[in-house]
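To close the chapter, one final illustration. This time we ask the reader to focus less on the individual chains and more on the assembly as a whole: which components sit near each other, and how the overall shape emerges from the parts.
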Amino acid sequence: MLKIKLSAFAVVVGSMLLNAQTLSSPNGEFKMEFSLKNGSPYYNLKYKGETVVEDSRLGLRLLKDGDIQFASELERKDQQGQDLLEGFVKTKEEFSSKNEKWDPVLGEKKTYVNHYNELAVTLNQTANERHIIVKFRLFNDGLGFRYEFPEQKNLNYFVIQEEDSEIDLPWDAKAWWLTGDYDSQEYQTQTTNISEIPQRWPSSYDGNASQTTIKNAVQSPLMLKKEGKQPLYINLAEAAVVNYAASNLEVDATTYKFKTHLTPDGQGAKGYIQTPAVSPWRTIIVSDKAEEVLDSKMLFNLNEPTHYKDTSYIKPTKYMGVWWEMIIGKSQWAYSTAKNVHIGKTDFSSLTPNGNHAANNTKVKEYIDFASAHGFDALLIEGWNAGWEDWFGHSKEFVFDFITPYPDFDIEMLNQYAHQKGIRLMMHHETSGSATNYERWADKAFQLMNKYGYPSVKTGYVGNIIPRGEHHYSQWTINHYLRIAEKAHEYKIMVNSHESVRPSGQSRTYPNWIAAEAARGTEFEAFGGNNPDHQTILPFTRFMGGPMDYTPGIFQTKLDYYFPGDKRFVKTTLAKQLALYVVMYSPLQMAADLPENYQRHLDAFQFIKDVAADWDDTVILSAEPGDYIHTARKAKGKDEWFVGGITDENARRFTVDFSFLPKGKKYEATVYQDGKDADYISNPQSYHIFKKTVSSKSKISIDLARSGGYAISLKPLK
Amino acid sequence: MLKIKLSAFAVVVGSMLLNAQTLSSPNGEFKMEFSLKNGSPYYNLKYKGETVVEDSRLGLRLLKDGDIQFASELERKDQQGQDLLEGFVKTKEEFSSKNEKWDPVLGEKKTYVNHYNELAVTLNQTANERHIIVKFRLFNDGLGFRYEFPEQKNLNYFVIQEEDSEIDLPWDAKAWWLTGDYDSQEYQTQTTNISEIPQRWPSSYDGNASQTTIKNAVQSPLMLKKEGKQPLYINLAEAAVVNYAASNLEVDATTYKFKTHLTPDGQGAKGYIQTPAVSPWRTIIVSDKAEEVLDSKMLFNLNEPTHYKDTSYIKPTKYMGVWWEMIIGKSQWAYSTAKNVHIGKTDFSSLTPNGNHAANNTKVKEYIDFASAHGFDALLIEGWNAGWEDWFGHSKEFVFDFITPYPDFDIEMLNQYAHQKGIRLMMHHETSGSATNYERWADKAFQLMNKYGYPSVKTGYVGNIIPRGEHHYSQWTINHYLRIAEKAHEYKIMVNSHESVRPSGQSRTYPNWIAAEAARGTEFEAFGGNNPDHQTILPFTRFMGGPMDYTPGIFQTKLDYYFPGDKRFVKTTLAKQLALYVVMYSPLQMAADLPENYQRHLDAFQFIKDVAADWDDTVILSAEPGDYIHTARKAKGKDEWFVGGITDENARRFTVDFSFLPKGKKYEATVYQDGKDADYISNPQSYHIFKKTVSSKSKISIDLARSGGYAISLKPLK
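The assembled structure is written out below.
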C-alpha cells in the first residue's frame, strides 16, 4: 500500500517538475499553467475550473540587429536560431504577491486595488546563451503576462520581426471587433462570431484620413462572449505600451486563436529594443458577469506608478468648444480662401477672409459668455491658428507652428476675457500627423500656453504620420506621444490626444495624459453615423485602457435643422446623450453642441452642468456588451451620485435599484429620461424630467426608447 | 530680289518663332538652344561651335498628391496626364543678364564674379492648365538650368516620382565617377569611359556603414573628358540643393546619356513640393582647359545670397584633433568596457574604464599644449561625451545627448585651460545618423557650446538615418542639415558636417556651414586605403560645390609604426600631404596626425603652421584630373602666397612658374619637396626643404615622386 502511494506521490511530484507551473489568483478562481513543450513556452488559463484559454504559445521572431537596411532585406534568412521562440529551458521560477491600493490622480474610484499573484519564469535559450523572463500576474479579474529582456552579455540590442503571443480559445465566441489597422480605430464595431470574422472583414471598414488595414486582423481591446447557459465574458487587451509598438490581433477563425501582430515602421521592422526592456502586458480579463469586466482596473494596475512629483495641475475638466459647428459644416477651421499658405512667410492679414471662420473674436466671446454662465471649466477653440487653409492631404511637414493666431483671433484679449469670466481656454494643436514638426515647436507652443494660462491642450493626428512610413501605432510614434506627455508635464499641461494610439492604462504613469479620442467618436455622427449600439460597446473595448474624449451632449441630433434636406443625424435620443456622461468615463467631458441648442433645452442641459467628471466610486449596475449599460457613480469628495443608462437599437425597461446609495440617507433624484414617444429617428428630442426623493431602498423603473437612455443626478436632502 | 530676301527673312524669323530659343554666354562661346518637340522641352549646348550636349529632354514625373500611402501604392497609375513631361506650349520667354561681384565670407578668392545671360521659358501644360518655368543661365564657364514651379491655381502641392533631366553627350568620354548611392560618397573614384560604366559598376564599391547603391548610376559632381587632339573637360553637378532631394545620375552607356535620379524617402517618393518652389540647378561646366573647370565658381554663383546679418563669427580655422589615434586603432572613443548604455540613466562613473579612452583630461591637455604652442586655432576632441559604448549599428535613436561628458573629461577645466593657452576647443556631435534625436538636443547642445566658448562643431552621420527609411540625401535629411546650419547660426556656431550630403554651393546662403566631409577622406587611408590619384580627382568632383574637410597632414604614413606587421599606410609621400593644404581648398584645415609625429618633423610641420585657409586669390597653374594638380593661392589680407602640387601614381617633373606673383617684388620661397629617393610605399618620409628668393619672373623645376608632391610658402622680402 505504502509503495503504491509513494509511487503516486512521486508521479505527482514528477509531473510538477516536468516544466509545468501553476499560478492561482488570490481568490483561487483563476489558474494559469505555464509549460515548456519542445522548448517552446506555453500557458493556459482556467476560470472556475473551466478552460478559457487552451495551451497557447509565446515567443518572438527577431530580425538581425544592426543589419536592417530597407524593406527588401527584411525577409528572414535562416533566422530560426536567432528567434526567441524555442530552444528554451526553464532555469528559475519566482512566485510573489502584491496587494496594494493606489489612488489615481483622476479616476472612476478614489482608490484602485492592485492584488495579484505573480510567477516569473526565467527561460534560457541554451543555443544562444541568453535568457528572457516571462512574467505572469494573475488577478481576481484575470491574467496579465509580459516578456522581460534583462541586460546580459548575449542580449543587448535586437530588432523585432514579430511578437507571437497567442491566445487560443477552446470555443467559438461572439466578438465585438474593429478592423485591424496600423493607423485608425475610427471604425464601426462589428459583432460576429470569431468564426465569421474573415467573412465580415472586407466590409468591416469605411474610409479614413489615415488607415492601413491588416487583413483578417482585429484591434484590441477586443470583447468576446462565450454564449450559452453559463456565459463567459472575455476581454483581450494590452497594458503599458511604452517604447514598443501597439498590437493588433491576427485571427485564426477555425481554431479560435488570436495572436499578437505588432505595428511596423516604414521598413517593416516592429521594434528596436535595447535591454533591459519589457514588452507591454497582454491582458485577458474573464468573468461570468459583464459588469465585472467594466469594473476591471487591470490595465491600470499593470502600469508603473507615476514618477511625476507635482500632479496638482491635473484636474477634471468640463468644457465646451468652438468645434461642432465646423464638424457639421456650418463654419470652417480656415480663415481665408487661400489654398496654399506658408507658415512664417504668408501674411495672413493680407489674405481674403472666407467669411466663415469660426474662431473669430466675436464668436469666441459669445461661446465664452455661455460657457462661463453655465459653469464650465474651459472652452476649446479649434481653428485659432494660422495654417488651416492647406492643413490636410499634402503630407506638409511644416504645417503649423502652433503659436501664430489668425488675424481675427486676439489671443491675449480672449484669454483675459475668459479669465475675467472665470473660465480658461483650451488649446488646440492639430499636428496633421506631422509629429516631427510638432516636436520642433512643442516648447514654444507650450510656452505660449503658459503665457496665456491654457491648462490643457487637445492634440490631433489627422492624416499620415511624418516621419513618413511610420504609423500611428508604431513604436516611434508611441514614443512621440509619450515625449509630448512628458514635455507637457514640464509645463504643467494636461493632454487630450485625438487620432493617437488608444490608451493602455498609461494614465497611471503619465497622469497628465488625461484622455484620448482614438476611436470613433461623436464627430462620426456627422461623417457617416455611429450605430445605435456603438456606445454600449465602447466601454467594453476602447475604454478598458483609459478614458475617451467621446464629446457627447448633442441635443440637436438631426442636422437638417441647419441644412434643409440633410439626412445626417446623431443616432441617439437626447436623453441618451445625457447618460453618456456617466456611462462613458472621462475626466475630460465636453458639452459638444452649439450654445443655442443648449439654450433651447436648458432643463436637460442642467444635467450636463451638474454631472461630475471625477469619482470616488463607480458601480456598474447592469451591462451587456452591444445591448445596454447602466452605471452609477459618486462624485469625488462630494455626497452626490449620478446614474446613467443607455440601450442599443432595442427599447428596454430597466429598474434602477438605488441600493448603491449609503443607507439611511435621503437624496433628491432628478431623472432625465426619454419621453413616452421618444424615438432616436423620428422624435429624438422628446424627454421627460422629474424629481423624486430616494434612498438606498428605492427603485425606479425607466423605459428607454430605442437608442435611448436616462440620466439621474442625486443630491443629498438635508 | 526683294521678295526672295523677304522670304528668307521670314523663314529665319519663322524658325525662331517655331519654339526654338537660343541663349548665348556673355563671351559668346557657349550657345544653348531650347526647343519643344511634341510638347516636351529640350535643350542643347554648344561650346566654341561644337555640340557638347545634344538635344536632351527635361521634365518630371509626379505621384498623386495626397495619396501617398505606402510603398506598395506608389506605382504610377495612369499618371501620364499628370506628369510634367509633355503637353507643353511655350507662352513666354524672358531674357535677362547679370554681372555682379560678391565676396564670399570665406573663399578661394576675395571676390567671385557672377556673370551670365539668362533665359526663362514659361511652359504651359494646356491639358492641366498649369505652367512651369525652365530657367537657363549661361555663364562663360557653362550652363545651369532649373525648374521653377510658381504658385497657381492648379499647382499647389505635388509629389515627385522622379525628375527626368537629361544630359546627352554626343560621344563617349572618360569619366571619373563614384558608385551611385543614396547614403554614401565614400567610395574610390573609378576611371573608365562612359561606355564601360555598367561593366565596372559591380566592383566599384566597398562596404560602408550606411549605403544604398543604385545600379548603373553614378554620383555627382561627375567629371568627364572628351579625349583626343582637342580635349574637352565637362563637369556635371547640381547647385542649391535646398528643400529637395539630392540627385545621382543614371547612365545610358550606349547613348552616353545621363539622367537625374533623385534620392527617395522610405516610401519611394522623391520630393514633397509646395509652390512656389524651385528645383536645384543642374550644372554643366565645359572648358578646353581642365584648369578652368577647377576655377569655376558656377555652383556658388547659382545659390542665393545669404540672409545672415552677422557673419563675423565665421572664420578660417586650422585645427588639430584627438582623432587619428582612434581612427588607426590606438585608442578608443568609448570610455568604458560596457556594451550597452542608457543616456540619462547609466552612471558612467560606475562603469569599468577600458583604459584606452582617448578623450581624457591628461591627454587632451597634452594636445592643447602642442596645438597652442604651434599656433592652431582649435582642437577637436572626439569621444568626449557619454554614449560611445554602443553608438553604432543598433539603430539606437537616443544614442547621445551631446551635453554629458565622460567622467574623465572635465569640460569646464579643459576649456579654461585651452583658452588660457590661446586656443579653442572644437565640439564634436556624432549623431549616428539619428537626426531626430540630434534635433531634439540641438538647442541644449549649442547652449553648452556657447557656455564653454566652442566656436565650431564637427557633426557626423555615421550609420543609417533616423527617421528610419530616409537616406542621407533624401529631401527630409537635406532639410535637416539646413535646419541644423540655421540653428547653429542663431548660436553663432560654424558647422563642419561629416557623412552629410556633398555641398552644392550652399555656403553662399549658409556661410556658417563652412565645410563637409561627404567623400572618402584621409580616414579611409586607415580603412582600406585611398588610391594614389584620389586627391588629383576630388577637386574636380567633390570640391566643385564646396570645401571638403579632407583632414590631411599625416606624416607617419605607415601604420606599422604603431602596430608591427600592420600593412596599412597612407598612400602618399609626406611632401604630398603638405601640398594638400593648398590643392584641396577648405577654410577648415586639420593637421590630422598625432603631435608626436609632427614633433619628429618640425621642419616639415612649419608649412602646415604657415599655410593660410582663406584666400584673396587662387591660380590653377596646371591640372589634369586623375593625374596632377598644381595650385597657387594668396592668403586673404596678407602678402603671402602658397603653392602646392601633387601627382598620381606617376612620378612627374613640374616647373613652377611664379608669374602669378605681383611684378617687381621679391619673395622668400620655402620649398618642401619629395626627397630624391622618396617613394610613397618604401620611403614616404624622405623630403627636402630649401629656401630661394623668387619674383614673378622666376621658375623652379620640381621632381614629384610617385604619389608625391611639393608645397611652397612665399613671404615678401623686405
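Residues 6-301 of chain A form a domain with the Beta-galactosidase; Chain A, domain 5 fold (CATH 2.70.98.10). Residues 1-17, 66-81 of chain A have pLDDT under 50 and may be disordered. With these observations in hand, you are ready for the problems at the end of the chapter.
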